[in-house]
Specification:
This protein is of the alpha+beta class and 363 residues long. It has a 6-stranded mixed beta sheet, with no helix packed on it. Strands 12-13-17-16 form a 4-stranded antiparallel beta sheet, with no helix packed on it. Helix content is 27%, strand content 29%. β6 and β7 form a beta hairpin. The radius of gyration is 65 Å and the shape is rod-shaped.
Length: 363
């Protein structure tokens, strides 16, 4: 046996389903966005339209929430919330966001747009017990930015040494800027016959010569405007030529100075050699002019008596250059003559004895 309460609950559920089928009423919230994609200008304002319908007349539990999915840098966070007598605005949009609080309208307006405001915005509306239906809408916002002033530069060609690549780039610009190069001749822009990339901003100049020297202008453009920069190729290569000329001049000067020093040193060496030769020749002449006779020391009587060797004397050196000695043979030693008062050898003792004998006799 089925309980009475269960029978009544089943009956009420069937009755509710029948009423919904006849009347077409559904407990649901339907969210509608007017524009799924919007473009707005940096610094301007934009309104993200979001409307809704609900089957309930009571809106005391209604909540509206906006979620932001940022493009660059990628991030996701809730930027706006309204419900339960509470309003929340993220600090990045504080002072720049205005919300509509009229029934059926969940739109918001963002002022003073920034490039970082580009991304996907989700509008979500809930009104319990309306939890079914399409209660989320999406709006993609693109904040357009004019090109910033580009920077012009130059870099060497990776392969060709006689070529150069001019570069041009803007840090900001939405849509992405395109680039166009011209050469300024007599204050008039002229097209360049070279390889130029409209999206890369690179201009390749091959076989650089004096004809290519000049001022080149690059213009970055998008739907919001354009900006330009210039690069003077002649100034750069003129400075390069001056530097190269200075280096070559310095090398040549060093070579000339080195040659002069070498010549002077060589000449000084030759003069020194000549002076040495002259000094040597003069010394030889002086040596040749010296007398070549050898001087012999003549012995005295005492020296002759003391020496019994006939060949004991040698001649002195003739000169420092010849280094030769000459022996002089003397004749055989003769008996030296006795002086009047000199006594013959061997008679000294006899005389002494006689004197002593006389003395004894006298005594």
């Amino acid at each position: 046996m089925v309980p009475i309460n269960t029978k009544m609950s089943t009956f009420r559920l069937r009755l509710l389903v029948t009423l919904i089928g006849f009347t077409g009423c559904v407990f649901a919230v339907e969210v509608t966005v007017k524009h799924s994609h919007l473009n707005a200008t940096e610094g301007g304002n934009v309104t993200l339209l979001c409307t809704f319908t609900t089957t309930l007349e009571n809106l005391s539990d209604l909540t509206i929430a906006w979620t932001f999915l940022r493009s660059l840098p990628k991030a996701q966070f809730q930027m706006y919330y309204y419900g339960d007598k509470l309003t929340y605005i993220n600090k990045e949009f504080n002072g720049r966001l205005l919300a509509t609080h009229t029934p059926g309208n969940a739109s918001i307006t963002i002022e003073k747009l920034r490039p970082s405001d580009s991304g996907n915005y989700l509008c979500q509306v809930d009104n319990p017990p309306d939890f079914t239906g399409n209660h989320i809408g999406s709006v993609v916002l693109t904040v357009l930015v004019a090109p910033s002033k580009p920077t012009c530069g130059i870099k060497p060609h990776p392969v060709k040494t006689d070529s150069a690549i001019l570069s041009c780039h803007s840090d900001e610009g939405v849509p992405v800027p395109t680039y166009h190069w011209v050469e300024i001749v007599n204050h008039v822009p002229e097209n360049i016959f070279g390889h130029s990339g409209r999206t890369s901003g690179l201009l390749t100049i091959s076989n650089i010569s004096a004809h290519e020297y000049g001022v080149y202008q690059c213009t970055a453009s998008n739907s919001l405007g354009n900006q330009s920069c210039t690069f003077d190729l002649s100034t750069l290569y003129a400075e390069t030529d001056h530097i190269i000329g200075a280096i070559i001049g310095a090398v040549l000067a060093a070579i000339v100075i080195g040659a002069i020093v070498w010549v002077v040193a060589r000449k000084a060496k030759k003069n020194a050699k000549k002076n040495v030769e002259k000094d040597t020749e003069l010394q030889v002449k002086q040596e040749a002019m010296k007398p070549s006779n050898a001087y012999v020391t003549v012995p005295t009587d005492d020296a002759a008596a003391a020496s019994t060797e006939p060949n004991d004397a040698k001649l002195a050196e003739v000169g420092p250059s010849s280094m030769e000695t000459t022996e002089v043979h003397r004749p055989a030693a003769e008996t030296p003559l006795l002086s009047k008062n000199a006594a013959p050898s061997g008679t000294e003792n006899t005389a002494k004895e006689e004197i002593e004998g006389e003395g004894s006799h006298a005594t």
